[in-house]
TrEMBL record, chain A:
GO terms for cellular component: plasma membrane. Keywords: Cell membrane, Membrane, Transmembrane, Transmembrane helix. It is found in: Cell membrane. The keyword Transmembrane applies. It comes from Pseudooceanicola marinus. GO terms for molecular function: branched-chain amino acid transmembrane transporter activity. InterPro entries: ABC_transp_permease, LivM-like. Coiled coil: none annotated. This is Leucine/isoleucine/valine transporter permease subunit. The chain crosses the membrane at residues 12-29, 49-71, 91-116, 202-221, 248-268, 288-313, 350-372. It is a multi-pass membrane protein.
Automatic annotation (TrEMBL), chain B:
It comes from the Bacteria. The gene is livH_7. Belongs to the binding-protein-dependent transport system permease family. LivHM subfamily. This is High-affinity branched-chain amino acid transport system permease protein LivH. Its main location: membrane. It comes from Pseudooceanicola marinus. The keyword Cell membrane applies. Pfam families: BPD_transp_2 (PF02653). One of its GO terms (cellular component) is plasma membrane. It is found in: Cell membrane.
């Protein structure tokens, strides 16, 4: 169906079901219960899940297929955000032109950087992309202030021209981003018993984009082009010896993944119309690498899982504080309670980075294939009977 | 002319720090073949060794001085560091004053121990894994170390003063025949440069003139053959890891008075040090040192107002521009060898 084989189509359907029903799935606890802080079903966080999912899918097309480790992908996301916000400022608050422009601009930017960086491989390529991204970040902070508004970040104001739209609404406030009249920030709340489920227009917009991006990624993975990229990863030298110029293929992969990042940046600006230079910093580039590896590089679903995982824990873990911990463990005797809380408080709240670092070391050490490999191992453990058959047919990540 | 000399001097101390970190990174890469993203964290731990020793020496007990009163009229409480109590006020005060140089002695065993634990506990398992995995696991370790430091020392920079004797500045201009006060340079930065030169020279001499260093160099060239000759090369490489950690740590200890240590200083230096290593050529020790000083001096030249007015913003990006130009013109960096890190 849709040009996919049965297995891939099932995967697409599963992802579609997950994102469509995310407001229910991520909201398993009633709103006023003690467990409500584990709910992730609010618009802001759900939007971030899918946007970073798109970002990671795009990164995976480059890293997972060709093995080129780019340390500067956040630059494309930043460029995408800036172009989208400029479109909101100059043209209209409709997100369609903004997203189109952000994809085009980041694609061009990726072509420029990719053309230069892809002349080298291995760590030299990583450092070149890192250097370009840091340059963009620093220029956005300092000299390019007329375009990027420096440290404050680019924001909408009441005297923007907005040729096809209105400069200000009738009530004198800045108009909101919309998709042909559908406001992105509008949220429908459905109360069922103690649960309150939130359906946000912006989230569903992002979700549709994620599904499109995911579908496109499957097609790329299964296409002759994707096969060529895998061949580059496994032995580029041999490709060159057979008389094939791999540069156009790797450059195409680089530009495609840059455009994915631009799409993510454009969507980010569409949900919340501002753009800051810190989105381009190398730590942001590192984050998408972490997401992809944590989920499983070279697999289809891995990057989406990784993005969701990191963003979930970033939000939920950093909200837990000492009082919350005390309320969990108040059943224990005082001395033990204090000891347990003292240990745990290092890992939550502002210390969630520590948890992330530890988790990361554990995953890289014991599960090099990421969460997807973990799932596969678990599946094999449960069906040990046909384990031997499975190892012959199991899908392995691209080498 | 005096401005140019001043910028070269200014570049030297930052260049020394880059060169020291890059030297350690290259030692680890050349011996163990591991790309160590936690090296910046080692630099930071070194700086916090200086902070810790300073705090430790300043531990005080309180006594009540009945002859004086505070502004509320109560007897004044005087804090005296234990050190001054034990060694008398003069010697005690001198010890506290010289805490940063003393921290060099204090930090060497700590850093070597940290290096051994890191290598034996974690990095050992990553020799046969792809470079991407090594980068990721050491990056995770760097985050963990950074967060631990943040927990115990807080997020704010901690001032760690240099000894009073080195507080002032040296007037180079007067010495070299320029007008006085045109080229002044803090004493501590001169010391930092001299210290870095000694360390770099020491590492090179160690590798060049000792039997141990000879074996290590042989192992860097062909690990397998050295192993077949019955030499336990892994053990020597572990020792080299400890040495590299100590070099990074010493760079951090001495840098503490120049820039107050905070928990993210390691990450700040890490990216630049990697650029330095790659520009110098992966696996080349002289390349790392040369690139460190070169980029440090370039950076300080770019921050001159005359240059900034010609190319605005150049001070922010000059290192990256230089890295891109050098890598495109010389594929293996300044002094890189064929076949290192090219697959």
């Amino acid at each position: 169906m849709l040009g996919l084989n049965k297995k891939d189509f099932t995967l697409l359907l599963i992802v579609a079901a997950l994102v469509v029903f995310a407001p229910f799935i991520l909201n398993p606890f009633p709103a006023d219960s003690a467990m409500a802080q584990f709910n992730a079903g609010y618009p802001d966080l759900m939007q971030r899940f899918v946007i970073f999912g798109i970002f990671a899918i795009g990164f995976n097309i480059l890293f997972g297929l060709t093995g080129y480790l780019s340390f500067g992908h956040a630059a494309f996301l930043g460029v995408g955000s800036y172009s989208a916000v400029w479109m909101f400022k100059l043209l209209s608050m409709n997100i369609v032109p903004a997203i189109i422009l952000s994809v085009i601009v980041s694609g061009l930017f990726a072509m420029l950087i990719g053309y230069i960086s892809l002349r080298r491989t291995g760590i030299y390529f990583s450092i070149l992309t890192l250097a370009f991204a840091e340059m963009s970040f620093r220029l956005a902070y300092s000299v390019l202030t007329p375009i990027t508004n420096g440290e404050t970040g680019l924001q909408l104001t009441l005297d923007d021209p907005r040729i096809l739209g209105e400069t200000a609404t009738a009530t004198g406030s800045i108009p909101v981003t919309n998709f042909f009249g559908i406001e992105m920030r509008a949220t429908e709340v459905m109360n069922v018993g103690g649960w309150s489920f939130q359906f946000n227009n912006g989230y569903y917009m992002c979700a549709i984009m994620l599904l499109l991006a995911f579908y496109l990624a499957i097609r790329i993975f299964r296409s002759p082009f994707g096969m060529m990229l895998r061949a580059v990863k496994s032995n580029q030298q041999r490709m060159n010896y057979t008389g094939l110029n791999t540069k156009p293929y790797t450059l195409a992969a680089f530009v495609i993944s840059g455009m994915y990042a631009g799409l993510a940046g454009g969507l980010m600006a569409s949900m919340d119309p501002l753009a800051g230079a810190e989105r381009m910093q190398w730590t942001a580039s590192g984050e998408v690498v972490l997401m992809t590896i944590l989920g499983g590089a070279g697999t289809l679903i891995g990057p989406v899982l990784g993005a969701g995982f990191i963003k979930y824990f970033e939000n939920i873990f950093s909200k837990i504080n000492e009082q919350v911990l005390h309320s969990w463990f108040h059943a224990l005797p005082d001395g033990i309670e204090n000891a347990v809380v003292w240990v745990l408080e290092h890992f939550v709240g502002s210390g969630w980075h520590l948890t992330l670092g530890l988790l990361f070391m554990l995953v890289v050490t014991f599960l090099p294939g990421g969460l997807v490999e973990g799932g596969q191992r678990l599946g094999r453990l449960l069906r040990r009977k046909d384990a031997e058959k499975k190892t012959a047919t199991q899908s392995t990540p691209a080498e | 002319m005096d401005a140019i000399i001043l910028q070269i001097l200014n570049g030297l101390d930052k260049g020394s720090a880059y060169a020291l970190i890059a030297l350690g990174l290259t030692l680890i890469f050349g011996t163990l073949g591991v790309v160590n993203f936690a090296h910046g964290a080692l630099f930071m731990i070194g700086a916090f060794c200086a902070v810790s020793l300073n705090k430790l020496l300043n531990l005080s007990f309180e006594t009540v001085d009945p002859t004086r009163t505070d502004f509320l009229g109560n007897p004044l409480k005087v804090k005296t560091p234990y050190i001054e109590g034990w060694f008398g006020p003069d010697l005690g005060h001198a010890i506290i004053d010289w805490s940063v140089p003393l921290a060099i002695l204090f930090s060497i065993p700590i850093m070597i121990a940290v290096g051994f634990i890191m290598e034996r506990g974690l990095i050992k398992h990553f020799y046969r894994r792809p470079h991407a995995d090594q980068i990721l696991v050491t990056f995770g370790l760097a985050i963990v170390l950074q967060e631990l430091i943040k927990h115990y020392y807080g997020a704010n920079p901690i001032q760690t003063p240099a000894p009073d004797a080195f507080k002032g500045s040296f007037d180079f201009g007067a010495m070299m025949g320029f007008d006085p006060n045109t080229i002044i340079y803090p004493y501590w930065r001169m010391i930092y440069f001299a210290f870095a030169a000694v360390i770099i020279g020491g590492v090179f001499a160690f590798l060049q003139f000792t039997t141990f260093g000879m074996v290590v160099r042989a192992g860097m060239a062909d690990r397998e053959t050295v192993g077949l000759l019955g030499i336990n090369i892994d053990k020597r490489f572990t020792i080299m890891f400890g040495l590299a950690a100590a070099v990074a740590g010493l760079a951090g200890v001495m840098y503490a008075p120049i820039n107050s240590p905070n928990y993210h200083m390691g990450m700040d230096f890490l990216v630049l040090s990697f650029v330095v290593v790659v520009v110098g050529g992966m696996g080349s020790l002289p390349g790392a040192v040369a690139a460190g000083f070169l980029l440090g001096i370039l950076e300080s030249f770019a921050s001159m107002n005359e240059i900034k007015s010609i190319i605005p913003g150049i001070d922010q990006i000059v290192i990256y521009v230089a890295a891109i130009v050098i890598l495109l013109a010389r594929p293996r960096g300044l002094l890189g060898r064929r076949g290192v890190m090219e697959d």
